[in-house]
Amino acid sequence: MCLGVNSQAMLWKTLESEPSMAFLHVHPTANYVFWWVSVALTVIVSVAYLLKVIFYFEAVRREFHHPVRVNFFFAPSIACLFLVKGEPHPVWEIHHVVYNLLMLPILCLGLKIYGQWMSSGERRLSKVANPSNHLAVVGNFVGALLGAKMGLRELPIFFFAVGLAHYAVLFVTLYQRLPTNVQLPKELHPVFFLFVAAPSVASMAWARISGEFNDGAKLLYFISLFLYMSLVVRISLFTGFRFSLAWWAYTFPMTSVALATALYASEVDNLLTRALAVGLAVIAVVTVTAVLATTLYHAFVCGDLFPNDVSIAITRRKPKFSKMLTQIRSSSSEVKDLVLSIPNFSSSSKHSSSNSRAS
């Protein structure tokens, strides 16, 4: 959710500042509104997950060892990078310490996850590869994009190189669909759109690093555009399952392609590229709005947004309050059984004594 909404703030800032989008006359208020909504949503989700870490640490530990959910541990840093990039004020006014603090978790998680992909037996890439692994890669490109925008040089190139190397390996592995790969359930099919996110953000990052939307950036952009179109025509892949939070996987990649198209239109400025940029931006905004409205409807009207997650959201250590309730219930049931068993015992003893006299 944070990735989808935070990237919208970045989109409206781009539509306001890019020369190719000047004819839209986007007011800065749109960027302000989306940015503050993004800040509020990020704080709410962060506090909620922090409470989960405190009270249900076993569930968080299981998520970290899950082949799909471990990739979402990159999401907080990526969402904060989007917040910094989409801030209404110029990015270069932000201190470089903020950038280093945001990239440190991505570096540490990358060292662990990429090492497991390469050398771990049960967690090697050929065994756990799934589309959500793109989140483990796209953070490097988002960091490279922000660092280049802040005027840094070496660190953005470093993170871009790390992301590009692992994206190439991940792309080939996912395309091969090895029999040993983890199979995604149908409800998680929206994460296939994460195929689009990495090359589109990488194209923007390389354009900022090199100072222009050159052939390298165009190469990555065209890959993302083709993957976007190839997923859109596969309607059957994204139908037949009910709404869940996985639908937010549509939002961030669509916004990334719209952002990259706006930068491309500034380099290749004509009617077609402008129309493409505006069209993709409208699709991204409508998608985010629709998914946000559906999420609020299921959360506050239907009350079925969070189904019982049997595989993850179970802790072996119950809270003290739950233990007290369990003890009270068990003690009351024991007393009840004892009371019911007393007359049965007396009747059986009388019956046994009469039998003994008869014998």
UniProtKB/TrEMBL annotation:
This is S-type anion channel SLAH2. Belongs to the SLAC1 S-type anion channel family. GO terms for molecular function: voltage-gated monoatomic anion channel activity. The keyword Membrane applies. InterPro entries: SLAC/SLAH, SLAC1/Mae1/Ssu1/TehA, Voltage-dep_anion_channel_sf. Gene3D superfamilies: Voltage-dependent anion channel. Keywords: Cell membrane, Ion transport, Membrane, Transmembrane, Transmembrane helix, Transport. It comes from Triticum urartu (Red wild einkorn). It is a multi-pass membrane protein. PANTHER family: S-TYPE ANION CHANNEL SLAH2, S-TYPE ANION CHANNEL SLAH3. One of its GO terms (biological process) is intracellular monoatomic ion homeostasis. It is found in: Cell membrane; Endomembrane system. Its main location: membrane. The chain crosses the membrane at residues 33-56, 68-85, 97-115, 155-176, 188-207, 219-241, 247-265, 277-300. GO terms for cellular component: endomembrane system; plasma membrane. It holds the Pfam family SLAC1. It comes from the Eukaryota.
